[in-house]
Amino acid sequence: MKYLAEYRSHETVSQLTRAIKSIITQPWRIMEVCGGQTHSIIKHGIDQLLPDQIDLIHGPGCPVCVTPLAYIDKALAIAAQPGVIFCSFGDMLRVPGSTQDLLGIKAQGADVRIVYSPMDALDIAQRNPEKQIVFFGVGFETTAPTTALAAYQAKQLMLKNFSLLICHVRVPPIMEALLNSPNHQVQGFLGAGHVCTIMGYHEYRPISEQHHVPIVITGFEPVDILQGLYLCIKQLEEKRWQVENQYRRVVKEQGNQPAQQLMRRVFKVVDRNWRGLGEIPSSGLALSSEYNEWNAELRFAVSTINPQEPKNCRSGEILQGLLKPSQCAEFANACTPEQPLGATMVSSEGACAAYYRYRRAQHG
Predict the structure, then answer these.
(1) Residue-wise pLDDT tens digits, 175-216
(2) Fewer CB atoms < 10 Å away: N or C end of the chain?
(3) How far apart are CA 350 and CA 64, in angstroms?
(4) How does DSSP classify residue 294?
(5) Could you please report the per-residue DSSP string of 141-200?
(6) Picking from 53-67, 115-129, 137-151, 265-279, which range would have the lowest pLDDT averaged per residue?
(7) Domains of the chain by residue range
(8) CATH 3.40.50.11740, applies to 65-170+255-299
């Protein structure tokens, strides 16, 4: 608990808060990219400690939230087929599809199982050769290496009853897309620490230089976030635009090289549709043609499923930082964790879920 206490120290938090107040001279709008950081900010009230000039914008860094409706419907179509064991991380089970969610289809008799790793799904496939086992691979670069490892091992074992439904996404392209939007309000970024643990942060330098925005790779504890904000605001006040690494105890510039090599071997970079945001060029990862035999979209012929996104959910605006959850008329009314309109109310990293859990009393 030593290190946890160190990064939640009231004294250090107070020192950093005073340091931020001492350097700020004008309003700044800073986006935290990662949903885990959003959750920590709202849970610990970090935004309420800051001067009024600082507006924290919640970004699209919740992988569950940005998984497009088409992939939820594809998952439902596969899971409903006889002889299939459909494996997924638990936070995907309540993400609404066009008509229902994975939890609903499980209640109707489908064999849907929560796993903690794609390797668990691989083990289920080896123990159930008479069944077709499908793993739903979602998430940013943080979780992609373990999905790649499962695909790689399935190929080495020539495991014929295992396949993967892949919807992994990449962080740098969405940051670029946000900055290219005419409506963007971002002046600085807190970079996603866990993603950079895998990928490093060399990809962010061209973004920072081209768009004149500081990017500070930041951890998830209160001290991490406040220190990241201090470094970002200091750059803005000094008219500097660089990539800095606050999360040095975990993140190295080049990241995890073996993990990256495995990802390059198994995946290819593709354009990807993001829920509520539309198609972002080069923002997705998909299985390369070498792994077509383990591609669940091909095996179960669901590639053509492409439903329209519902228009009553404003999660797209929330994911772009254009709207705070409490500014949505449906928040805590028609949209609750029990009856969610969109994924941002379902995921533990979703901004709407964080506001509902920690700020609902203020809204009501």
Answers:
(1) 999 999 888 889 999 999 999 999 999 999 999 999 999 999
(2) N
(3) 8
(4) G
(5) TTTHHHHHHHHHHHHHHT-TTEEEEEEEE-HHHHHHHHHHSTT---SEEEEEHHHHHHH-
(6) 53-67
(7) 65-170+255-299
(8) yes
